[in-house]
Amino acid sequence: MLTLFKTYLKINKTMTPKNILKLTSDEKRKFLDSFDHVFSDIDGVVWNMSHNIEGSADGYKELRQAGKHLTFITNNSVRAEELCIQKLRKNNIEIEADNVMHPAKSIVEYLNSIKFEGLIYVLASEEFKNVLRRAGYKILDGPNVIVKESFTEAMAHVVDRQPVKAVVIDFDFNLSFLKIMKANFYLRQPDCLLIGGATDFLLPVSKDLSVMGPGPFVKMLEQISRKKMLTFGKPGKALAEVLMQRCHIPTPDRVLMIGDMLEQDVRFATSCGFQSMLVLSGGCSYEELMTETDTNLIPNYYAQSVADFVEFMKDLNKCNV
Question: Is the per-residue pLDDT at 213 higher than 60?
């Protein structure tokens, strides 16, 4: 019994995330030297819905000065990429479009890589659909109608002969039962791909409020179609493959993933072999972090916010003097 208890304590200790500011000097140096590239979430990390997160830009500046390459990864394809980049720069974070990734963009890169040809049925926002259109893909959407409670009338909007070769689902503010039925109708074809973007079940608005995300509908479509979905939002492995290729990263363990959500960000890092750091500036509290028992959702490190890297580097530089 004593041996089992000691084993439990040892396992529990290895699963406890470390506060980056409480690391020893040697641990800080080892941590900083252990990664070359930083993948960072945006919402809840750089800003929240109502305000910018104080000091986040200074934290990223310290990472860049330490020689780290930075790529922002968001599950939000509703916001236009141009607006996202403008907002980052307004927040004193200089970034180029090549270093910003969102589901619509990663899906386009995948479709380009397989030389996809054919019609795509899309359940997503108008901005998401515009990304596909600008890339030259032919899309089909709708029906955007309200029907009488009649299966006959409903089927008239669902069943057609359109040669759809892929169904893409993301955040659709006007999602309806008819659209889900139509998507499943196309997915009956063996060669029709099922592709997903954002899979968030909850979207944090503030520390005290979260609203429902597209995740339940994405999961439902995967289950009823009985098709394995290629997921190009966090925590999808298909997204990781796109990122590793476009960033020319040889091994995943040289990546630090920074995010504020256990399910999307930490699971993404764990399943893809990245190191992980959770920040408590967004959708996860300290209490939630410390009571999490799923090892796939426990990060290697945590911090109050990205701004902690300012103090982290200051302490490390003092030790080097």
Answer: yes
